[in-house]
Each structure stands twice: as structure tokens, then as C-alpha cells.
Write a structure and sequence with these properties.
globular; alpha+beta; about 15% strand; about 40% helix; about 80 residues
């Protein structure tokens, strides 16, 4: 059986968005589905509403950026200074 409700971390993974982006969409985007109250301290999103929202997204002409998903390492200050000298 497919889940009826999903929580924020699962939703973030399913949409390939960060949790903070989903929270911002929930606050600011009137077309983004609102979470439902599941208990006193728990909310979840209806999977059917999320699927409808996702299918309504416009098709993009943009190509994904290079290195999508690759995390860039930070240079230490010492190493960066050594490279400059």
C-alpha cells in the first residue's frame, strides 16, 4: 500500500528539494499543498496532493547544471594561502 501521508524529510527526498525550501513553499506559495494535522504534534502531506502539484509544474527548457548533487569541498585557509604563494 502506498503511503497516504508523508513527513517533511521524506517529502524533501521525494521532491529533490531541501526541507527549508519546502517550508518556504508552504509559507509563501499558495499553490503548494499545505500539511495536514495528523495528531497534536505531528503534520504530514497528502501524497495525492503532492503528486498533483508535481505534475502541474511547468516543463523546463533548462538543462540541469553540471555536477548536480556533487558537494564541493572547502579549502582550508592554510592550504589556500599555500596555493597562492
Amino acid at each position: 500500500m502506498k503511503p497516504i501521508f508523508i513527513d517533511l524529510p521524506t517529502l524533501a527526498d521525494a521532491l529533490a528539494l531541501s526541507e527549508s525550501t519546502i517550508q518556504k513553499l508552504t509559507r509563501e506559495d499558495t499553490s503548494f499543498p499545505r500539511p495536514r494535522q495528523l495528531s497534536v504534534r505531528r503534520v504530514g502531506w497528502l501524497t495525492s496532493e503532492i503528486e498533483q502539484w508535481a505534475l502541474a509544474r511547468p516543463i523546463s527548457d533548462l538543462l540541469p547544471p553540471e555536477n548536480t548533487g556533487a558537494k564541493k569541498g572547502r579549502l582550508s585557509t592554510r592550504y589556500a594561502l599555500e596555493m597562492i604563494s
